[in-house]
Amino acid sequence: MNIAKTISPLLFLCLIFGNNNSIAQSYTFSGYVSDAKTNERLIGANVFDPIQKVGTATNAYGFFSITLSGTDSATIIISYVGYSSELLKFPMTTDRELIVLLPPTVTLNEIIVTGARGEQIQERSQMSEITLTPDQLKNIPALFGEADLLKAIQLLPGIQSGGEGSSGLYVRGGGPDQNLILLDGAPVYNVSHLFGFFSVFNPDAIKNVSIFTGGFPARYGGRLSSVIDIAMKDGNQRDFTVDASVGIISSKLNIEGPVKKNKSSFIISARRTYLDVLARPIIAAAANGQGTGGYYFYDLNGKINYTLNTKNRIYLSGYFGNDKFYAKSNNKYDTGTEQVETSNDYSLGWGNITSTLRWNHQFNKKTFNNLSLIYTKFKFDIGEELFEKTTDDFGVSTITNALKYLSGVQDYTVKNDLDWIPTPKHYLKIGIAYTYHQFSTGAFQYKSTIDHFNLLDTSVGSKPIYSNEGAVYIEDDWEISSRLKTNIGLRFSADLVNKKWYTKPEPRISLRYLLTDNASLKASFCTMQQYIHLLSNSGIGLPTDLWVPATENVPAQKSWQPAIGYSQSFKINKNNCEVTLEGYYKNMKGVIDYLGGADFLSIDETWEEKVAIGNAWSYGGELFIQKKTGKLTGWIGYTLSWSWRQYDEINFGKKFPYKYDRRHDIEIVGTYKLTENCDFGFTWVYGTGNAITLPVAKYFDAGINSLTNIYSGGSYNGYYSSIDYFGDKNSVRMKAYHRLDIGFNWHKKKKWGNRTFSLGIYNVYSRKNPYFYFLDADYQGNPKYKMVSLFPIIPSVSYSLHFN
Amino acid sequence: MSGISNFKFKPMNKIYIFSLLIFVFLFSQSCQTIIDIDQKEFQKRLVMSCTLNPDSIINVYVTRSVGPLASGLPLTITDAIVDFYEDGNLLFTIPHDSAGNYSYNFHPVIGKTYTVKAAAPGFEQSIEATTIIPTSAIIDTFSYAIVLNEENNWGSQYGLNGSITINDLPGENYYMIQAYQSSVDTFNSPTQINGYNLYITADDPLIGNSRDYNSSILFSDFSFDGTSYKINFSSDNVDTYSFDVHLQYIVYSLSKESYLYLISLNNYYKSNGNPFAEPVQVYSNVSSGMGILGSASRWEALVY
């Protein structure tokens, strides 16, 4: 072995990271930043030395480390939005470990934040990143008054919803499968409740959300278009608190508190709809008592953590959620010779399970490690069961026939992430991850019994596919000079499926150049690789999503995306404002879509035979203006974009607009604090209509006889077929979508805590927005296109209680 | 017993579930609005259907498009001017024969390029399409075997195992194979010859893009371009009881237009009306209009 070659990289690292130490004696200040009231660790709190003008931020577990040198004393300001800042002064005599408790400045759901000087947008090397807090989420008006994380994310530039009621995210021209949505590190495959009208994330259980739409740091991978990293609350370590709310369609309960004070805490958050209970009598009446049906969903988030000592802490968190639709019908009749009872049960269900076990370990003052074991599962099933009981002179006989279609995906992941902060100018993250995927790509289960004797019990369809995905990464947030900062990294990923290897080095870089103290230019470039696909049926709005792996026949998806941007912070009447302007181009290969005529339920072909493999590209610009403090807070977002698809086997090889190609997308979101106890929120959204494929004409053609009939010596007389003419794929545009929502919150402090009464109006001017189009006849029998709209103006009320 | 014992997961059940899912929840919320989609220009266009081949005269069927919900018989065009070009030169105008059929006694030539242009009063745009008559398939060998089937769905005890070896020419080529069986019903109509195409399938991954089409095998030479390739096929249903039974193999060499058209048309019919299926665009090479101008050459052989 060439020792020189081995040592060289280490020597290089020492030279880079060790140069500060050679100049003067330096000391490291490390520790954790927590909420003084709950002891909840704070993510992204700013740790800043105003004299040396160096700083860092707490990581996802509240840990920080900053090394200072060259002076007699150290001054550190610790700040976080919504909390009073802490000014700490120490003599520079030794390394110190700190536990910093920041008292929240907010009172009852207050959203005005002053005094904190966090890292400003123009200072961050990262571009295309937005962070949301639960308070922001809760103040955005929502359908039925249900605050919704993904609906809020859809109000950000570059991120589009699929349309009315959709929880799908379409980021910079990417598909809904290209979003890495992490809940405490566990990927969540299906994020929809109620056919997409709500997302699965309960805002009461969320601590922090980071959204990346480009310039991805190397620690993230496996998806092409976005990363949504959701951190669940750890639970109050000091006191028990209970939050309860009652809404129009669901109720929520959130309990958190210490298991062992200041050492261990838990949080349990549950939500369930009661739409089924409300609808049951209506459906039963409509079915004359011979049937029933309903729909419900529930969520359960739970988390527990235990601080073993100052250097070790473990977390166990989980999410369980299910959607269930069911319809039952019963019938009885008498033929004279036999009495027959029949029942038909139909069901549709889907749900997620995630669980994460994490172990935080602080190796030393500069090195923090997290080891995670993760399990996630998504399942979808649709089925029916028919039962018949016949009574006649010979006795009783029964027949049961059942059919179920199942699909889903399960992951088992182990990963390790290490933070190393050698100097204030470098923040390294190094990690390794392995995931074992198990895909159930669509199978039918048949079962048939007569008088409890099994006639048939079998499964047909696709067999499960197993794949192994791994990745290693290293990234460095490196302050090259006072003006130039970069986040540079490399991720190397690999996937093994059916003896087929995919490997890919994925270089990433983000650059920030400070033009002035308040403005910077940014640029980024990233390459991404994705080893899974999602097959979505475009014709219906059901959660018929089928997750499938890259295989030897269907390649992995890959992309590259350059972006440039401008960021500036400024003040309006002493209130902090930010503006960002970004332009991007994204190129994607290996995207898949169903072939024309493909039916996801068909078992005549495998899923690989039903799909086309093609290319996609998108480009556009995004403007984001945000007012972060003051009585009025909120943002304006505008996206101008183009998004294209091209498959050799679809649209006869010609490019066509992506279904969610949206030329203009505008969001205006605001919250205004009317009085100390009352605030008002509003959102207005506008989006160009979706591109869809509809028959626009019909023609008659010799059809199947055009060839063989001629050889039979006949003419076309009497032989014709009717053919729908669609034009080019996605050549029809739906109407533009726009909507105004408003909401009021009245807060009142009580002896036992506080209560909030909320009143909201969804779609204030009752715009009939398109959900889907279909062909039908009008009252005169003339063919017409009809548009189905879902939600006219909908008022909502909810009542929330917070018990201290 | 009722029909429950014949339980199947029928399309109707899918629709039932689909309807329930959407409408049970949304019945009180959703509303429908008649909307106008500015696509009227597609609803009055000329349509041509024609497959040229060297063995028969020219037949061009001219109709017009209508609105997507129109019903009834085709709206045939009887006053169109249909011009016929060979290698870019106008050869003749095809006269109207009957009910939208334009016929002319001319046999196209293999390898030549033919263009058909049609215009009609009341239509703003004329239409045209072009095709090249493909070379006939070169068949090296063919074989057959009648096999005993213990179980099949056709009520027939015997099936067919057949093969055809094609000497494929370099370049893109497209084929369709049929097995045509004829017989005489000795009991009911002893003088009448009945014929039909056997339903044949090929379980061959190298022609994986083949589609069962109208009881035929439809495929391209993508996987065996320029080589000799043996295609094995089978049928579950062979008539061995009737009198004077004959089997004929037919191999059509198709133009690319015909191939794309037949493939897409087959998918269209398979999925039409299925709410779970993606919409299918039927291929057309007719500019400013709809329909198909295709071409084919035929090889056939009497097997027995």
Quick synopsis:
Chain A has 804 residues and is mainly beta.
Describe the structure.
The complex is a heterodimer of chains A (804) and B (304). By secondary structure, chain A is mostly beta strands. The longest helix of chain A has 21 residues, at 3-23. The N and C termini of chain A lie far apart (64 Å). In chain A, 6% of the residues lie in helices and 60% in strands. Mean pLDDT of chain A is 84; it is low at 1-23, 107-117 and 710-718. Chain A has 3 domains: 24-105, Immunoglobulin-like, CATH 2.60.40; 129-693 and 729-803, TonB-dependent receptor, beta-barrel domain (Maltoporin, Chain A, Beta Barrel); 694-727, no CATH class. Chain A is built from 5 helices and 48 strands. By secondary structure, chain B is mostly beta strands. Helix content of chain B is 11%, strand content 44%. Chain B has helices at residues 11-26, 256-271; strands at 31-35, 46-52, 58-64, 81-86, 89-94, 96-98, 101-104, 113-119, 127-132, 139-148, 158-167, 174-185, 189-197, 211-213, 216-220, 228-235, 243-254, 290-302. In chain B, strands 2, 3, 6, 7, 12, 13, 14, 15, 17 and 18 form a 10-stranded mixed sheet that branches. A 4-stranded antiparallel sheet of chain B has the order 5-4-8-9, with no helix packed on it. Classes of the chains: A mainly beta (804), B mainly beta (304). At the A-B interface, helix 4, strand 22, strand 23, strand 24 and strand 41 of A face helix 1, strand 1, strand 2, strand 3 and helix 2 of B. Strand 47 (783-789) of chain A pairs antiparallel with strand 1 (31-35) of chain B, so a sheet runs across the interface.
